[in-house]
Amino acid sequence: MILIILLFLLCCGCQEPPPVSEIDFVAQIEKHRTEKDVSFKGSENSPIPDERKTEFQGLSYFPIDLKYRFQVRLQRYNQKETFEIVTSTGMLRETMRYGYLKFEIGNSECVLQVYKLLDIQSEYPNYLFVPFLDATTGKGSYPGGRYLDFEENDSAIYTLDFNLAYAPSCAYGKAGYNCPIPPAENKLDVAIQAGEKYPTF
Questions:
Q1: Predicted confidence (pLDDT) at residue 34 exceeds the cutoff of 70
Q2: What are the boundaries of each domain within the chain?
Q3: Which region holds residue 31: left if phi is over 0, alpha if psi is between -120 and 50, else beta?
Q4: pLDDT of residue 20
Q5: Which residues are registered as beta bridge partners of 160?
Q6: Average pLDDT over all residues of the chain
Q7: Cα–Cα distance for residue pair 193/103, rounded to 1 Å
Q8: How many CB atoms sit inside 10 A of residue 102's CB?
Q9: Distance separating alpha carbons of residues 109 and 104, to the nearest angstrom
C-alpha cells in the first residue's frame, strides 16, 4: 500500500488540479495508468509476484468516464472516533473516522466515510483513506473492494474521481500485504463502473 501512496503523492501533489478539458483529463488519467503499469512491472517493491512480471501487460480498467468525477467538500467530524479496521490477514489496524463525502450518482445520494490510518500518521500525516465497496465488487472489480485516497488540503474541497479507484496491493498475488477491508458503512448500492477492474493477468 505504501507504493500506492507514493505513486499518488507523486502524481497528484498537494494541490487540487486546475480545471481541464475533457481531452486533457483523459490524457492525465491515461498517463497515470501508464506510469503505474511501468512501476508495477519494473519496481522491486511491486505487488506483482516476480515470477509473473514477464506476463504482466498492464492493469485492466473500466472506460474513463467524467460522470464519476466530482468536486466535493469533506465534512469533518467534530468528535473523531477511532475503531479497528479489519485487514486481509485478519489483523486489526487502529483507524480514525475523520469525516465524510456526499455526492450523487444518477438519482442516488451516496456517502463515503473518510479515514486516517493511525499507524502511518507519523510518516504520512496528511493521508486520507477512502476504501469502498459498490455493486461491481466481485462482479468486475476486486472482491475485497477498492481504494481512493487524498492529500489533505486547507480548503476541504477535493476532486473525488472514481477513475482513479484502485485495488489493494493484496489483489495481485504477492504475499506479505496487509490490506484494510472496506467497512460495511462504505458500501455503495450503485455500480461504480470506473477505475480499476479485477486483475486478470
A1: yes
A2: 2-186
A3: alpha
A4: 58
A5: 70
A6: 90
A7: 16
A8: 14
A9: 4
